[in-house]
Amino acid sequence: MSLGPVMMDLEGTEISQREMELLQNPLIGGVILFTRNFESIDQITRLVAAIHAVRAPHLLVAIDHEGGRVQRFHQGFTRLPPASVFGRIYGEDADKARAYAEKAGWLLAAELRAIGVDFSFAPVLDLAHGVSGVIGDRAYHARPEVVATLAYASMRGMLRAGMHAVGKHFPGHGGVAEDSHLASPVDHRELEVLMKQDIVPFARMIANDLSGIMPAHVIYDQVDDRPAGYSKIWLQDILRNRLRFQGVIFSDDLSMEAAGIAGGYGSRAQHALEAGCDMVLVCNHPEAVAEVVEALKDYNNPTSQMRLVRMHGKLEKGYAELHNSREWNKVSKLIAGLDQSPWMEMDV
């Protein structure tokens, strides 16, 4: 059975009967995990294994696990600093910053692979314009070339641990003040300005074989009147054709306020897939998943299915084996010591 175009979430720490029935539907292709799904290392490892066991090839298991305010699992996991920490280090020592970013990318991926998670929606490629609160310290830096070099270092580390990277939020969420979870942001900059600024990290990561991209629920009204995730101009003309991106395009969560411009959940999913997304995310609304599956019952895209299979994780090393390794002990202490700010998880 191929991987379908819908990624859903789970309500608890085990798969319910209703959820199991949905996971067996060919239109489902993956599961995104949240903090509520975690109880212990043993439990989450069993849960991921159970998700993988539902189908062959196995369903993708993903998570938003960047570091800083966006880190879903904590107990048994190294506390990862926000991306901005590496940007600050870059200002003092560029080589050290790149080395640390690569180690952090490896650590993030190795710990998640140890419990079976296929990939994280990371790294953030947005620029720190000082405008967006929802991006804030999740961005590496204000300069696009610094974001590109640090994100590439992080991706190298992730790949070494057997995990593909997903850059977000194309073509850049850092230039608007509104949070797309709560409002419908509009960026008034022209395309050529974006190409010279916010799109630079995406272009450079694409040139270095970035595997996945997540577009922003932001309208760039000088380019299109639809959010990037619903726009053929952004996803096909610019991302696929101009930038030559060959990887997976994941929609951002269709439950976000800015996604509502396309109507109900079924309509949102159809618009995103028609625009060029390969997989759509439906989070925190169980009834919406069933609505989306019903709306997509005649959907089939073999090209997207081939792209999605490539996102499966590799080189999994068990939790105990990882934590007994010299590399993990050294890197975990180093990365955990980079940021001592108070922790406050951000629900994105």
Structure description:
- Helix 9 links the parallel strand 11 and strand 12 (279-281).
- The protein has an eight-stranded parallel β-sheet with strand order 6-3-2-1-12-11-9-7. A two-stranded antiparallel sheet has the order 4-5. Strands 8-10 form a two-stranded parallel ribbon.
- The chain is built from 13 helices and twelve strands.
- The chain has helices spanning 17-23, 41-53, 83-92, 94-113, 144-160, 191-196, 200-207, 232-242, 265-275, 286-295, 302-309, 319-323, 326-336, and strands at residues 6-8, 28-33, 60-63, 65-67, 70-71, 119-120, 166-170, 186-187, 212-215, 219-220, 248-253, 279-281.
Number of contiguous helices: 13
Helix content: 25-40%
What composes the largest sheet? 8 strands, parallel
Number of strands: 12
- Anisotropy-based shape: globular
**H/E series, N to C?**
EHEHEEEHHEHEEHHEEHEHEHHHH
The oligomeric state of the chains shown is single chain
Cα-based radius of gyration, to the nearest Å:
19 Å
- Sheet with most strands: strand arrangement: 6-3-2-1-12-11-9-7
Average pLDDT confidence is 93
Structural class, from secondary structure content? Answer: alpha/beta
Distance, first to last CA:
31 Å
Estimated share of beta-strand residues: 5-15%
Poorly predicted ranges:
none
